[in-house]
């Protein structure tokens, strides 16, 4: 718990606001990931870039998204994680867990631990985006509406 | 599709990355079970404390809620806010003035009631409650 206090102090008492901003950024980046994936799978012409560029951008944006998501998840796990009530909090935990299950599956495919999983990558990616959306809705949306 | 060559065989780094994500995935449920066991023990201790004559001038913070939601005390009474939760909280008056700052889990904040006010936790704004002062 001292970790949270230290982080909160470090951020001028604005830890929650930073989490709100970063969670929103992760959500936006995950949406961009879907667009870029659709482009390099040639399922879409948007954004208007080459498939190779889309693949590279997908990789870079994915690394950024992952780093931010893990940073936010860490502050949740060492801080407020635990309560299962109200329902919003329980759902937030469920979708947070789901994100990392999906990431484990995705990287099992990418790192050749699950070769047959290639065909599921679009579904896993879509699941990640929807999970990030649910996480945003059960945290940031509540934060905004409570203000 | 990608212009970057993919590894053809599984690497130790790949296994570690997948394991890292699985650790994060499992961490949430583990924390929930751990905290639930702790909460049960804490509730038992609280019941014992109440049986020994626990005061009515205390507001507890647990499960992202203030308990009770409305506390009525006489003017001049010292009100104690106990953070029995797993998360840090604050007692912040909506009208300004009173602000406890961050109350870490296991810590308390107290004030002498001079006037009533609605308050909330600035870290978890959905946590709201009210202090009513009589006399």
Q: Output the number of helix runs of chain A.
A: 6
Low-confidence stretches of chain A: none
In total, the number of strands of chain B is 8
Q: For the largest beta sheet of chain B, what order do the strands appear in spatially?
A: 2-1-4-6
**Helix run count of chain B:** 1
Task: Give a description of the structure.
The complex is a heterodimer of chains A (147) and B (135). Chain A is globular, with a radius of gyration of 17 Å. Chain A has one domain. In chain A, helix 2 packs antiparallel against helix 3 (51-77) and helix 2 (15-40) packs antiparallel against helix 5 (121-137). Chain A has six helices and no strands. With 147 residues, chain A is mainly alpha-helical. Chain B is elongated. The model of chain B is unreliable at 49-54 (pLDDT under 50). Chain B has two domains: 10-54; 56-134, Cupredoxins -  blue copper proteins (Immunoglobulin-like). By secondary structure, chain B is an alpha/beta fold. Chain B has one helix at residues 12-51; strands at 58-62, 65-67, 70-74, 78-83, 92-93, 108-112, 117-120, 128-134. Chain B is built from one helix and eight strands; from the N terminus they run αββββββββ. Chain B starts with 11 loop residues before the first helix and ends with a strand. At the A-B interface, helix 1, helix 2, helix 3 and helix 4 of A face helix 1 of B.
Quick overview of this protein structure:
The complex is a heterodimer of chains A (147) and B (135). Chain A has 147 residues and is mostly helical.
